[in-house]
Amino acid sequence: MTETPSKDDPAAAPAAPAADQEWANLAASLGSEKAARSSPGVATEAPRAVLRAVLSSSVALLFAFVAIMIAGMLWWQYRQFYVSLDQTDTATAEALARVRAEQRALQDGLADANDDVETLRQLNTSLGERLDVLPGRFVALEERLDAVQGGSFDARGTLLRSEAEYYLTVANTELTLTGDYESAVTALELADSRLAEIANPELGPVRNAIAGELLALRSLRLPDIEGIVFGLGRLAGRADDLPLRADLPVSLATAADEELDAEPGFGRLWLAIKGTLLDLVRVERRDEPVPQVLSAAERALSRRQLEVELELARIAALRGDQQAFLSGLEMAIGILQRDFDGAAADVEGALALLGELRSFDIDPERPDISGSLNLLRAQRNETR
What we know:
The protein is an all-alpha fold and 384 residues long. Among the domains are: 119-223; 224-248 and 291-363; 249-283, no CATH class. 77% of the residues lie in helices and 0% in strands. Helix 5 (204-218) packs antiparallel against helix 12. The chain is rod-shaped.
């Protein structure tokens, strides 16, 4: 049998505090576990706070990335806009410089022509004054010769011959200096009428030469310079109304035109983003190749280039410069074929007009009408 230790036994006294300590620890752990079960929110509060902080950081980072992308797209739009604007300004400045140079050359040519015309007018006035004096002088000379020799002097024939020589000189001057074919024809006809009144068989070769010169002038195909200039002017005035090649595909050009015509900024950015999202998937079947869409600056530049080339062709037609006239027409035809809608009726009409004008010779070769004048002067020198 086991002996029960007595309360007074000193060996059994330390065992009681150890057992009490174990029971106290067990009660504390049970109490903490019970408290944890009764309040679960306290245990999960720390993970939720960490998750909230991570989510806030991710949202802030996403907004920062979106802001950087928007700023980059705005910068790219402004850069493309100003680069295109600078190119357009440069091309326009070059075209204006060419027009100014052509205008200065035309003004110089007109000044020289005016000087020549003024000199010719003075010569004609002086010669006319001399011719007005000739009839009286010939009459007086005829009277003196009749009184001295007792015969008749043909003063009228000499006067008519001088008038014919004067008209032949005028015809050559008008054709050579001013290119006035009608005035040259009129002067030749007047010279022939004066020679016909003389009724001298010796003047037959001169009249034959005049007939050949009249035939050469009348058979010459003269261009209608006024009609050409007016036609080119009307076509240049309609350059803004001609349809461009980029306007053809309606399904592709409408949205692009709205985006390109919008001012740079958030409105243009929104149109670009919307167009990109709507055009992520688009399936179309076309038998013909889809033309490349032109920007707003390229469309404006094409219209200005067409106007400038047509204006240069008009100036060349007025100056009678065949090479510059053909060059302007070729450049205008090239611009129409490159940037405009070739299937449109207006563009087809413009191309047909320019093609027809390209076959005209605005500066035909002038025939030589100096043969009759040389023959008449030679006969006068032989009779002296």
